[in-house]
C-alpha cells in the first residue's frame, strides 16, 4: 500500500503577540493520518472555530511549515517539493470564492493560467480545451464563463469556477478549506455532491475541512474530529457520527440532531432531512 499523503505527528506552534513574545499557541498537536493512493476518498477534518483545521490545511498545502512531525506527499516531504510540481499534484479551494479571484480579471484567464502553469498546456488552444473540460466537470462550460468577471456570477457558480480551476491542473488531491460556508445554504449540498462525483469519476481524493456536521456526515468516507488542536476522534464517518465516543463529538452531533434528522444519524442513507447548514435546531 502506498500513501498519497502521510502525516506523522504533525504539530504547529505560533508565537502570540509578535516575534519576541513568550506566549505560544499550540494550534495543532501530533496529528497523524494517511490517505491511500489506491483508494480515492473524501477525508473530512471537522471541528469548531479555533480547533486548528485551517492551520492543518495550510501545512498540508505547504503554506505553513510544521513545527514538528512530517508531511509527505507521494513519499516526498512537502517542504522539499518544487512549488510548481507540488501544485500540479495538490490544489486548494478556499472559503470565499469572491476573495479567490481579482474582481477586475476575467475568470477564464485564471483557468488558462493554471492550465499553462500546472496543467502542461503548451498553447492557448490546449489551455482552452483544458479549461472547458474542467468547467464541464463542475456543470459549467467555457462558453458560459468566457469573458465574464467574478461579480457577474453567484457565490455558488463562482465556487464551481474555483473548483474547475483546481481541476485544470489534474491534481491528485484537493484541499478544500470550508468550501461551502460562504455559499448559499440551498447550494451547499450540490457542491458537496460534486465532490462525491469528482472522487468517483476522476479518482480524486479530497480533504474537506468544515465545521458543518450535516454535509460532513453526508459526503465523508472517513473523518477526524479536532478540538483545541488535537484529534479527539477518527474513523469511518458514519460509524463515528452514529456512535460518537468523545463528549465533544457527541456535542457536535447533538448540535445538528433534530427529530427529523435523527434517523439519518442512526444509519439511514441518504440523510434526506439533515439540514444543509450546521445551524443549531
Ligand atoms: N498565524 C497565526 N499566528 C498566531 N496564531 C494563529 C495563527 N493562525 C492560527 N492561529 C491560532 O491557532 C489556533 C487554530 O486556528 P485555526 O485557524 O487553525 O482554527 P480553525 O479550526 O481553522 O478555525 P476557523 O474555523 O475559525 O477558521 C487559534 O487559536 C488561532 O488563533
TrEMBL record:
Residues 5-253 form the ABC transporter domain. GO terms for molecular function: ATP binding; ATP hydrolysis activity. Keywords: ATP-binding, Nucleotide-binding. Pfam families: ABC_tran. SUPFAM superfamilies: P-loop containing nucleoside triphosphate hydrolases (SSF52540). Signal peptide: none annotated. Residues 262-281 are annotated as: Disordered. Belongs to the ABC transporter superfamily. This is Peptide/nickel transport system ATP-binding protein.
Amino acid at each position: 500500500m502506498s500513501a498519497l499523503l502521510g502525516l506523522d505527528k504533525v504539530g504547529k506552534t505560533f508565537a502570540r503577540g509578535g516575534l519576541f513574545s513568550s506566549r505560544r499557541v499550540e494550534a495543532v498537536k501530533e496529528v497523524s493520518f494517511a490517505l491511500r493512493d489506491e483508494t480515492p476518498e473524501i477525508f473530512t477534518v471537522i471541528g469548531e472555530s479555533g480547533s486548528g483545521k485551517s492551520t492543518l490545511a495550510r501545512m498540508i498545502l505547504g503554506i505553513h511549515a510544521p513545527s514538528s512531525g512530517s508531511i509527505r506527499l507521494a513519499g516526498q516531504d512537502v517542504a522539499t517539493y518544487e512549488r510548481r510540481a507540488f501544485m500540479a499534484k495538490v490544489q486548494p479551494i478556499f472559503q470565499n470564492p469572491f476573495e479567490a479571484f481579482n474582481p477586475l480579471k476575467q475568470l477564464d484567464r485564471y483557468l488558462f493560467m493554471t492550465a499553462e502553469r500546472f496543467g502542461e498546456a503548451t498553447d492557448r488552444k490546449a489551455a482552452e480545451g483544458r479549461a472547458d473540460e474542467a468547467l464541464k466537470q463542475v456543470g459549467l462550460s467555457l462558453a458560459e464563463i468566457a469573458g465574464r468577471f467574478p461579480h457577474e456570477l453567484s457565490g455558488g457558480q463562482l465556487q464551481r469556477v474555483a473548483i474547475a480551476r483546481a481541476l485544470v491542473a489534474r491534481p491528485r488531491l484537493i484541499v478544500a478549506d470550508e468550501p461551502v460556508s460562504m455559499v448559499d445554504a440551498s447550494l451547499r449540498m450540490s457542491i458537496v455532491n460534486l465532490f462525491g462525483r469528482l472522487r468517483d469519476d476522476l479518482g480524486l481524493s479530497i480533504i474537506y475541512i468544515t465545521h458543518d456536521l450535516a454535509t460532513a456526515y453526508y459526503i465523508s468516507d472517513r473523518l477526524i474530529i479536532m478540538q483545541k488542536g488535537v484529534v479527539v476522534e477518527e474513523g469511518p464517518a458514519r460509524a463515528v457520527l452514529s456512535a460518537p465516543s468523545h463528549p465533544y463529538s457527541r456535542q457536535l452531533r447533538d448540535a445538528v440532531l433534530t427529530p427529523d434528522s435523527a434517523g439519518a444519524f442512526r444509519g439511514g442513507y441518504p440523510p434526506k432531512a439533515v439540514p444543509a447548514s450546521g445551524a443549531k435546531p
